[in-house]
Design brief:
Rossmann fold, 6-stranded parallel beta sheet, 36 helices, alpha/beta, Serine Threonine Protein Phosphatase 5, Tetratricopeptide repeat
Length: 819
Amino acid sequence: MDELKRPAIDIGVELKSGVAHHQAGNYDQAERHYHRILEEHSHHADALHLLGLIEHQRGKHQRAIRLIKKAIQNNGSCSFYHNNLGAVFKETGALKEAIACYQKALKLQPDYAEAAYNLGSLLLIMGELRDAIAWFEKAITIKPDYLDALSNLAAACNKASRADEAILYCEKVLSLNPDSAVAWNNLGNALTAKKRPDKAIACFQKSIESEKNNPEAYSNLGNALHDLGEAGKALDNYQSALALNPMYGQAYNNMGIVFREMGRLNDAARCYRKAMQLRPEDSEAYHNMGNILKDEGRLNDAVTMYRDAIDRNSQSIDSHVNLGIALEDSGRAQEAIQNYLKALDIDPYCAKAYSHLVHQLQHVCAWNQLDPFNERLDELTKCALEEGEKPDEMPFLNLIRHAQPLLNYRVARAWSREVSKQVRGVPAFGPQSNKPDLPLNKKTPKITLGYLSNNFKNHPTAHLVQGMFQYHDRSQFHVFCYSYGKDDKSRYREKIKTSCDGFIDIREMSHFEAARQIHDHRVDILIDLVGYMTANRLSIPAMRPAPIQARWLGLAGTTGADFFDYLITDEVVAPKAHSPFYSEALVYMPDCYQINDNTQPIPDGGVTRRDAGLPEEGVVFCSFCSRYKYEPIMFRTWLRILDQVKGSVLWLLGGNVEAEKNLRQFAISNGVDSDRLIFAEKIQREAHLQRLQLADLALDTRIVNGAITTSDALWAGVPLVTLQGDHFASRMSSSILMAAQLPELITHTIKDYEDLSVSLARDPNRLNDIRLYLRRSRLTMPLFNTQRFVHNLESAFIEMCEIYNSGDEPRQIRVTERK
């Protein structure tokens, strides 16, 4: 009798049953059905493919790859086999193989929306944003209501800094699914990028309402609150994110950023270390840890950390730029320059890298390299301004490159508009309507002044203002200082602390908390002493914590900001014809915009030329300005002056080997013996003022004058020749010389500057007459009459309050002498 045969199976039925179990998650039962098919038809492509998917879902990816590849061998024209094989390769990290699979699927079926989406998702992970966006757009062209593709397209646009497009795609998703947590989150990120943290907050809150267990939305909400200056609330939301996912490294990183801005560097470092532990391959926390180390002055450690960040992301422009800054600060100029150039290799349009590169080349006086980078930076700045964007070129760098008041104003205005955007949505502190009379504190009818700075320490600003606070008339004024700089324990800081009525350290406060403190102290006039100089916190005055806000010292020019009412200046540095180039109403002091301290010590004698490395005979010209103020036109003029005055030398600030080498080479190329350049080491201020008396004549710089360097020379009894320029920074020494009652030392052309310098050097009697005048009149001339300056400044403050109380807008003030 013939052997009994098993009845043939119905492949269609088996396949249908297997798929049903498969979709229900019953993998073992589904597998039995697929194996039955393969027992009859060992090369059945669908059964092989589906078995491969089960292995993939079980985490057995290599077995899944073998099975799906076998399915493809039997039916290579099935596009979704290739698509699913791509998904398995992606899971194993074989990204190139995954891309090839998705591309094959699309070649077989060009309208395969899922494959286009998968390819876009993989490219998004790899950081190939432009290609990712193109494939997501392909997916939604095929399938317009493809929510996942629309959501990922919005996320990709956010990462590519295309916020406007991201907003459009988010709105499309939300029109199809108003409760999409992902879309609300993406929309919040786009609005954050558009500097609309107030609107972003509402989006993140919607995302959390739709999906309460989403740590990313809490973290992003923290970011938006941080942008609004709400540091405390930001930290609360980062903690909420970590409560949901204690392994969420990004939340630790974000917390570190807030702690750093609050000045809580130890807490910031702790957060960054945790982020590095959780995400060892992510460069961001390493970069941020480098920032902490740089803040603490641990430059070598900062350099190491930035390099660790670059090891993890060699394309990080910010890491290359910040590494350059750390190297620059540690005196490693050439390495710094190389890192800026590396950043430009990555992105030839990176204006931030050009800015730092140009400034560093200025510091080392590498003038032969500057022209092409200056030209490129000019192009990028012009382009940004024309497009209504904030240029990456810093306002201070722009004014030391160009003596053009209109251009300086436009750059500063663009930066200030960006600051204003960042605090948009923060409740205004200053009274906006029904203005009360000033002073605000009716119980104590005094005008309350608030001076805001990060330089209440051993810094030129403190050197200038340290003697001011004791002279304020306490019958009319109450004086606060708000400090956000490091406490260096210097005598300058201590003198300021003991001379004001309240010294408040706001380093660990957020911008909002600091502004609230100023407002709660009922400050009538807030005076910012920094402008756009290093580590400024203009976000504080941008929140309008005081009804009247003024700018003084710091940045030599306008801020372009609508949140400052006045700029304290004089008619020399800011002539009336220049007023259209200032956003602030100009307050004209009667003598000079710059205050000086007439109590600073200056020991006579005790230092010889030999001690200072100077020749015993011959005229000593000097310029102790920062090296970035040197430039070829004026330095060549100095060399011509040396050439005409036999036996003379030029005494300069040393401490930078690269700059000294470049300046010596420049002298040689202009026919002057480089030994006639004498470089002085940096020493304490009192010792410097003592040795400065050894000089015969100070030579001022051109585009940015000496400012305190000029008044230091005059205080030490050394005459100075200046060339009056076309903007605030190039007219500062003219103002100082006018207040010293020495207008004859101001020139208006390079030739006049050169001729006057040579004439004085050749006429020792005339030079000595000026030196004698400076020594005899030092305490009586307007320049060094600190008490007189303070009384005039108080007149300006009183008039500001009178204008405010009259209901008028801020207007020009011309201060006359108080009797």
